[in-house]
Amino acid sequence: MTPVITLVQGDITEQSADAIVNAANSSLLGGGGVDGAIHRRGGPAILAECRRLRASTYGEGLPTGQAVATTAGELDARWVIHTVGPVHSQQEDRSGQLASCYRESLRVADELGARTVAFPAVSAGVFGWPLDDAARIAVETVRATPTSVAEVRFVLFDQRAYEAFARQVG
Ligand code: AR6
Description:
By secondary structure, this protein is α/β, with parallel strands linked by helices. It contains 5 helices and 6 strands. Helix 3 (95-112) packs across helix 4 and helix 4 (131-144) packs across helix 5 (159-169). The radius of gyration is 14 Å and the shape is globular. The structure holds ligand AR6.
């Protein structure tokens, strides 16, 4: 099945969904942007579980392009799915890794039984991915990924990002 794609302009930490995707870094221990906002609003339970993951399965961190779930703490969601986008590079095409973030997040969502999943524009902030291309990869990958997720909601922080995604969704 292909999920319905919806677009919202706003703060992803204010969304109600089964799973909220975090644009994390491989340390899983927090940062700025979406990551900072999720840990701030979700509270310490998320970080505690991330630390446990670092002490067990992901001793060297979560590799770029992969995804892992934790509790959503105090967010209005059951899970946070942390994924690590690639840093944009002019020298190297890393779009496969960015596509993998969406595919792997949906795979984890399926494992959990999540039906509604909210995504930010992974890599389009601190990691420097050009917005139009980030939107194209996000939408194309979700459309090409078989999943039981019923709704993929892209939550875009500002109007520019919202419009970039709206052009892709058509
Ligand atoms: N809700 C929705 N979108 C947001 C929010 C929010 N609360 N805050 C920012 N955005 P970024 P990245 C937008 O930088 O590029 C962190 O330090 C933002 O405008 O959060 O994948 C991590 O720890 C942009 O369009 O993620 C990593 O080190 C998009 O979300 C690194 O940043 C993604 O921006 C990850 O960088």
